[in-house]
Amino acid sequence: YKDFGSEDLAPLTNYNDNIKILELYHGPTLAFKDFALQFLSRIFNLFLERNNKNITIIGATSGDTGSAAIEAFKNNPRVNIIILHPKGKVSEFQRRQMTTIHEDNVFTLRISGTFDDCQDIVKEAFQDRSFLNDDQYLLAVNSINWVRIIGQICYYFYASCKYTNFNKDINFSVPTGNFGNVFACYAAHKMGLPLNKIVVSVNENDILNRFFINNDYSKQKVNETVSPSMDISVASNFERLIYDFYCDRDSDLCKNFYSTFPAKSINLPAGMWEKSKDLFLSYAVDNSKTIEAIQNVYKSHNYLIDPHTAVALVSVNKLNMNKEYPTLILSTAHPAKFPNSIQEAGISIKEMPKRLSDVYDKEEISYEFLADKNAIFNFIASNN
Q1: What is d(CA 63, CA 229) in angstroms, rounded to the nearest whole number?
Q2: Neighbours of 47 (CB within 10 A)
Q3: What is the per-residue burial (b if ≥16 Cβ within 10 Å, else e) of 110-125?
Q4: Are 335 and 310 spatial neighbours (Cβ–Cβ below 8 Å)?
Q5: Does the model's pTM come out above 0.85?
Q6: Which of 69, 264, 311, 345 is a plausible cystine mate for 141, CB 3.0–4.6 Å?
Q7: Which residues have a catalytic role annotated?
Q8: Would you list the DSSP string of 345-363?
Q9: Could you give the 3-state DSSP secondary structure of residue 149?
Q10: Which strands make up the sheet holding 280-284, listed edge to edge?
Q11: DSSP string, 271-328
C-alpha cells in the first residue's frame, strides 16, 4: 500500500455518537478496490517471476474495478490486461481513469450493453481460453477471484480493531452491487470478527434486497442510477453465500438452486431462508433519497460523501438500527469521482484530487465492441 495517499490507510470519520464512516478511498485510484488489487498484483508478480510465466487478465467493471486493476498492472511485461466496461454507464472520471493509461499491455474495451453483459463474457472466457498462447495463464481481477475477497476481509478487522478493539459486536453497512464486499464482511465474521448485523445496502437495482425481504432472487432489467457502480442485476458473489451460509457447503444443493437461474427466480425453502435474519438486514435506496442524503450530510457535517456511501447511510437511518451496537458505514469511493451526482445535489467540489484532475488533460484510448464474445476473443488473441 505504498501508493496510498493517507498514512492511515482507512481513516474513521465521526458521523454521530454511534455511527462512524470508514473511508476506503485513499488508494491510487481513490476507491476501495485498491485494497484488493494493489495486493493482488504483487501476489501475481511473485508467482509469475518465480515460474517464468505470463498471464492475460480479463475483467469486467461497473466503475472502480477497471481503473484499480489497470493502475495495479500497468507497465508489467508479464501481463496483458483487458477490461470490459458498459458504454455510457460508468462516470466520466471512472472511464478516463481507464482510457488515459497509455501502456502497451493495457486494453480498455467499451461494450454496447450492461455490466452483466460484460461479466457474462468474462465468465465465458474462462470456459473458452482458445485465445491464449501456450505459455499463458488466464486470471480474473473481478471479485470472482478469491484473492480479491481476501484483500477486502482485512479492512473489516482493521476498522473493528480501531473502533471497538474487538470488545463489542459491530454493524457494517455495505453499499453493494456484486456482493463481493458483503461476502468479505461475512467471511471476516466466519473468521471470528465480532459482528451483529451486515446491512446490505443497494440502489434501485434491488435483487439483493428482494431476496432478503421477500425470498425473491430474480433477475430484472438494470436501471441507470446516480450510484452507477451498483447498477447490476445479478450479484456474482451471492452464489458463495447460498453455498456457505444457506446450503451449509452442500455444492449439489447450491447447484440445484442455480440450475434454472436466471430464467427462473431462486426461492429458498422457508426454513433455510429464515436464517437471513440472524445476520443480515437490507434496504434499497432510490435516486432522490441518495441525493438528499448527500445534501443533508454536507449541510449538517460540512462533509462530502459519494452516492454509494449515501446509499449505505440512508439504509442505516431507515432501518432504525439498534443503538446498542456501534455501526460503521463503508465509504467506498472519493466523491469527486461522481461529479454529476454531486452537482445534482447542488454542491461544488472545492478541491479536486490531482490524481483525478490529471485525467482530463490526457488523450483517451479505447476499443468499442458489441457484446459479442467471439469478436472480443479474436481481439484478445490478435493482441496477445
Answers
A1: 5
A2: 11
A3: bbebbbbbbbbbbbeb
A4: no
A5: yes
A6: 69
A7: 33
A8: TT---SS--HHHHGGGGS-
A9: helix
A10: 12-14, 19-23, 327-331, 170-175, 195-202, 280-284
A11: HHHGGGGGTEEEEE--HHHHHHHHHHHHHHHS----HHHHHHHHHHHHHT--TTS-EE
Helix (H) or strand (E) holding 339: helix 339-344
366's grid cell: 479505447
User: What amino acid occupies position 374?
Assistant: N
pLDDT in tens, the chain (384 residues): 888 987 899 999 999 999 999 999 999 999 999 999 999 999 888 999 999 888 999 999 877 888 999 999 998 889 999 999 999 988 888 899 999 999 999 999 999 999 889 989 999 999 999 999 887 889 988 787 899 999 999 999 999 999 999 999 999 999 999 999 999 999 999 999 999 999 999 999 999 999 999 999 999 999 999 998 899 999 989 999 999 999 999 999 999 999 999 999 999 999 999 999 999 999 999 999 999 999 999 999 999 999 999 999 999 999 988 788 999 999 999 998 898 899 999 998 887 777 777 888 899 999 999 999 999 999 999 998
Strands 19-23 and 12-14: antiparallel
Location of C-alpha cell 476506503: 24
Q: Rounded CA gap, 342 and 325, in Å?
A: 31
- Residue 245 carries which DSSP code? I
Nearest to 229 by CA among 362, 60, 80, 41: 60
Cβ–Cβ < 8 Å for 172, 185: yes
